[in-house]
Write the structure tokens for this entry.
Amino acid sequence: MKKLLSLFLLVASASIFIVQAKAQVIVIANPSVKASDVSKNDLKDVFTGASTSLGGANVVPILLKAGTAHEEFLQAYIGKNDTSYRAGWRSLVFSGQGTMPKSLDTDSAVVEFVAHNAGAIGYIGKATPHEGVKVLGVK
Amino acid sequence: MYSKRIASGIIAAFIISAGLHAQEFKIGKYEVQAHGFGTQGYIKTNDNNWLTMQTSGSGSGVFTDAGFNLSSQFTNKFRVAAQVYSRKLGALGDWHPQLDWGIADYKVKPWLGFRGGKVKTVLGLYNDVQDLDFANTYALLPQSVYPIDMRDAMIAHEGGDIYGRAKLPRNLGAIAYDAYGGRRSDSMSSGYPYELKSSIAAYLTHYGGPVYGGDLRWNTPVKNLKLGMSRQNEQITAAGTYQGAPYAESSRHDWTNQYYGQYTANRWHAESEYKRYYRDQIVMSGTPAAFDVDQDIRGWYVGGGFTVNKWLEGGSYFSHYRDFFGGTLAGIITYADAATKDLAKVVTAKFTLNRFTTVKVEGHFMDGAPNEFYPAGFYAAENPQGLAPTTNAFVVRTGLSF
């Protein structure tokens, strides 16, 4: 019984840790984007090129080149690693169905770009200052 | 000797890929992206020569292709892009660079877009992405549905597409559609002209004609389950010479139906497709009499893959191909239903060395051989002694993309 309880506590702690890890990345958008929150499916559609709109308005995804926030975002909302995620985008590029989203080096560069470009939507680490953009809740 | 070449090729690809990045530059105020890809393959068979290569004996590495594209997103709705492609696959391709596709794309709404120029043809799961080695699990897609020697025939059309994607009400998922019309114009270094040349010494100078069709795919309410169907109609004419006299083909009926489904779950994916290609054509070969040829080609496969970790994916498919052939010559000779079949069991391992480089190792175990009237991988020119009933093939393919 004690072993079972220990196992349960271990799994519960791990779950809490995972939830906290997911919460370390936030989704930001230019204030022109009317939506205040977004479903996980819609977010995935936008960031995989399946859709170019949120709430009826055009949006443009902005990526991070690498880093913790990038890995967490892909794992939590796209369900792919970086290699297969970019392979998906290259498929669109080489079949004439899309253009690769802009990839920026740092979280602050993403904030800067999203703040100044209508329709832009990106993701950053939660701790990064993000004046000039709105934070979208992910349902 | 070939094992050293393969090892050298993989190492070279790995080193080159370390310096690869998509390039971005500006023309005026517009940003232009440059991307490219290339693959190098090697095939060794135990018996029949395959895909116009001398694959038996020590095998063949005459299996190379490359593409380079430029694209620019002028506005949120308007985009221009083009790609040049070149390949050498045994006796096919001959390194003739061609405009693979070149489009202007205007997306009015998510559910309504227009694409014009030379446009990649959406047909089934993989027709428009069949060259993208990095995106597919297999070194060779199931040849019953995506014959690599016939790539040029289906890859693109000159014309226009209307496309879009819309969510369905009541959580019924989403629908994506693509409807197109235009012309198809085959390269003379493709599989069908080569088949005619090598089997009956007919030399084509033109092959193509009007084409129209569409694709409808449904992202179902079942998470990550996609179902779809494609249809294509064509009116094909061919011109050339046969024994010094004019040779011509003209299709009376020429259509393709394709049905497909794909499911992905975490590290797994599974897919299946069924394709039926039917053509009824009149052949004029220098005599007043016309030769009527019917071909009813049915192919399907079931396949899947499992991603072990970020470096390794394993996969397998079972592929089946059958060609029902018949025809008349001046109304006198009637061919019996000369159905031929070709089964293939395939296992593959895909190694992703880094973001830009993949290496695939694959085994094909084929049972059966096609007839001589439509290309299906095995050609008379490379197999003058006739075809053995079974073929085993070892395939290695390295791909780079940026």
